[in-house]
Structures
1.
Amino acid sequence: MNLISWLHHQFPIIPSRTERPAVTAADLIDFKIVVVEFSDNVESNSGETITRLLNEKEGISASYYDAPFPKTFLNLESRTLFDLIDRGQALLDRTRADVLVWGYREGDKIRLNFQTEQQYENEDCAFVSLLDSLYVPAETFGSGNHLPYAVGNLIYGAVVSSLNAFSKEKKIQKRYLLKKIISQLSKDDSAKSLSIDYLPYIMNFLGIIYLSYCYDNHQEKDFKIVKNLFDTALKHQDLIKNPIHLGCIYYHLGQLYDTATQNMLRRPTSYYRDAITFYRQAQKHLSKYNYPYDYGYISYKLSLLFFNYWKQKNDIQALRDAVFQLREAEKIYTYALFPEFWAELQGRLGYLLSLLGSFTKSEEICELAIASYKNRQKVITERRDPLAWAKIQEEIGEIYYRLGKESADKDLLEEALEYFHDALYIFENSENEDEVKKLNTDIATVSYTHLTLPTI
């Protein structure tokens, strides 16, 4: 079967977009890619081959890392996953790479995986998981053989899709490269045949590439193209031997519908339902105990979905579900291993619990909200980030004020005043006039409430 020719008919349309700043070759700053020596046969040079291939591509600079070390953790078994992540993070720190490319031989195939810094903390619209696997024929790396042009572009697209582009300039560059890759893939008519066995993995990465480009363009036709790519991968799930690969496809369908809830001009409730359904389906294959980081990050995304659904429908159960999912993520992203992301989770927990406590009139839930905010201050300290620290003090003060007013408790009102004054001191020193004005109003309100309460 000529799979590449078949893909030519499945992937024909470059997604439409609103106009964005133009990028020229002179504007490009190369993203740094490091290809780690593959876990492969000793006579194979597949890692070097892919490094050469990537160096021929626009906008990236690839290097080959061949320092010897055991690579048994590349089998993707749950018991070695932590070793893979830790070793990859160490290499990312050492090489300052934007993307790390791993290769592992499975029979007659080479499996490629892609790792980035903060992959399980802040995706920034990079939809690739470390578990996402792209398979290519091992024989194509043999002496005198060349990768099919379309397969080379697919690997290039997988690398670019993996990038965490945090700055505006890098986002524009990433989009520019993806557009060119999609154009090349849509026009390619390579005669090289690939076995049908590769189809679900190729369709998964085609879906990722397309989604990475058009996730926020509001176009229904592009949504349908991405959905069709992932659906086609699912239709051939009988070819998938490892359930984690199936879990990744469900994960990306969840991401597709999740982005639709945020970016489609028409945002029906069904987008929320389908996003939640696919995320939960993914968690069945990427379980809490075997693949905790993927499970935990999906829980985090589910929490955001439930919260946004609550804002639309005012369904208190959705708010409870948002808290539950964030608690699930909190169990995995601990203070010891992920201090920055843990602090973000604590801040969101504080906010969600304060809302839930207010609506349910539960003092206990409000106390949990305060505890979460104080947990956040273990990372966001007064010395490290005084303005963010002061904002947390203000949030805690508002909870104490609400509790004190509702229970007519002067002690709680005095707690509120103490937190407001802490925040006021910081904002006065930073000359933040809006916050100073707001806090002075809050302090006056709390003081008046305190005075009007009867003395017991």
2.
Amino acid sequence: IEGIWREGEHVNHTQYKKLMAWLYFKWLADTSPRRLEYVDTRFVSGAAYRQMSDASKDDHNWVVEDKKWTWEVRKYKTRRTYGAVSFPIGRCLKAALRKVKPIAAAKNADGFIFLNSKWKPLGRNTFSTMVKTWFQTYLGKPWTQNTVRSIRVSALYRDAPKSIEMLRLAKEMGHDVGTQLLHYRQ
């Protein structure tokens, strides 16, 4: 990847795909995995974002470059249920985004990050295929974005009691599972 940085804004798409993979893995390390919202993500300054209408904000997801950088996810499958969400961008992801931004800006004036060979935003199907390819190439695993999401959830619940046991105990103790989860300590 070092040679790619020397190319800067003159990288070809094959080189840019390596940068996208690198950035994607940085993103996974910094935030919980989302579905495929990455493809709808654009760079925007904090001032420009604040001046946008809600309708304009809802058209895309945003890396908001402000005093504290955030990833504003406004375009996603379950938006009607959960509303817009905001994730703080950590130091490592922020550094990676800063490094990729001038290259992405040279290829796409609209601020998109994940780009196809014509330097337009990737489609979700293409991004999904790329994710599987990246995992196969760099980790030797044929994982999809759904697999990554499942792994994350499974890791969280790895040492948790089985649901049937939780339901049985709640019934026996005369409270709901929510109460158990609220007071559950390892």
